[in-house]
Specification:
By secondary structure, the chain is mainly α. The chain has helices spanning 2-30, 35-39, 49-59, 65-77, 91-124, 129-143, 147-161, 174-202, 206-213, 218-227, 231-243, 245-255, 261-270, 274-302, 304-321. Helix 7 packs parallel to helix 12 (245-255). The protein is elongated, with a radius of gyration of 25 Å.
């Protein structure tokens, strides 16, 4: 059963990757500009019409759109992401050189977001109106704040005014703090709301009353019993937001002048470097699928009742069939 589920998820993942590649291919095609100019060094290189015509013929830009699309899918099928028009480097090499900084930023941001969400939700669930209302207001503010605005605010306070943290670069761990917080705070706000709602439902269950009757402290009840039974919604939302973190890194890496896939994607879009754009989008789609597949497989580990219910359902189905 597990293998069938994994197979179905992988098939759905292939569909997601195909859809992402197709939509990005079309989006790049309809944007203004000619990729032939990106290959020869841009319009400032002042290439002759003959050179542009030669480049278009060599790369197939003079072919119908459908032909270009089919050829692109054919290369993808054999794992060929192509060569960057702008850098004249294989796309796999470009991604390999830039992925480290983005993984570091996204990983730290995801960890900070989850930890903040758990701490805030556990502390504020089923509390008084002042505590809960204050937490909800802050969460709504953070969740609705644009990343670039939040990043500029953090820069203004902690870098330009207090001079506690550097404003740009990838030099050391201190340079990672503000970019990670810029990504993490809106995500933590959303996760905290989801987790608190689930935790408050769990804290009303009879087994919580029993745990309190055994003399457990409020903190122990919340962490050992309440939190453990509230992790499924948190895991689901974490899978969604972690899988989509790459979109946030485009703004954050540009704002904080960090090397990574986000800045690479932005530069590729501006230069109409289609192989790099499609490569980054495909990588993002694959990460999204893998993260959500892992989260789905972790459900029975987080809540063993799901595994028991699934086994009982399978047994019942076999008995009915017999």
């Amino acid at each position: 059963m597990a293998l069938a589920k994994i197979g179905a998820r992988l098939a759905a993942g292939v569909g997601v990757a195909w859809g992402a590649a197709t939509l990005t291919f079309l989006a790049v095609q309809i944007t203004p500009g000619d990729p032939a100019y990106a290959i020869v060094g841009g319009p400032e290189a002042n290439p002759s019409p003959e050179v542009i015509a030669q480049v278009r013929a060599e790369y197939g830009f003079d072919q119908p759109l459908l032909v270009q699309y089919v050829r692109y899918l054919g290369r993808l099928a054999v794992g060929d992401l192509g060569t960057s028009y702008r850098l004249q480097t294989p796309v796999t090499q470009v991604l390999g050189e830039q992925i480290g900084g983005t993984v570091q930023l996204a990983g730290v941001a995801a960890l900070v977001a989850v930890v903040l969400a758990v701490v805030v939700a556990v502390f504020t669930a089923k509390r008084g109106a002042v505590v809960r209302g204050g937490a909800t207001s802050i969460e709504l503010f953070l969740a609705s704040s644009p990343s670039f605005w939040l990043g500029i605010l953090l820069l203004s306070v902690f870098s330009y005014s207090l001079h506690w943290l550097p404003s740009v670069g990838n030099a050391d761990g201190r340079a990672l703090v503000l970019p990670a917080l810029t990504l993490a705070l809106p995500i933590a706000a959303v996760l905290s709301q989801v987790l608190r709602s689930s935790l408050e439902e769990v804290l009303e269950q009879p087994f919580i009353t029993t745990a309190r009757a055994r003399g457990l402290s409020d903190a122990a009840v919340r962490v050992r019993h309440g939190l453990r039974h509230s992790l499924i919604p948190l895991a689901t939302m974490t899978g969604f937001v972690v899988g989509g973190l790459l979109g946030g890194t485009v703004i954050v890496e540009s704002l904080f002048t960090r090397q990574g896939l986000g800045r690479t994607l932005l530069a590729a879009v501006n230069a109409k470097d289609m192989p790099v754009v499609l490569g980054v989008v495909l990588l993002s789609a694959v990460v999204y699928v893998v993260v959500n597949l892992v989260v789905d497989l972790l459900y029975p580990v987080l809540d063993p009742r799901l595994k028991t219910a699934r086994t009982a359902s399978t047994t019942e189905t076999k008995e009915v069939a017999a």
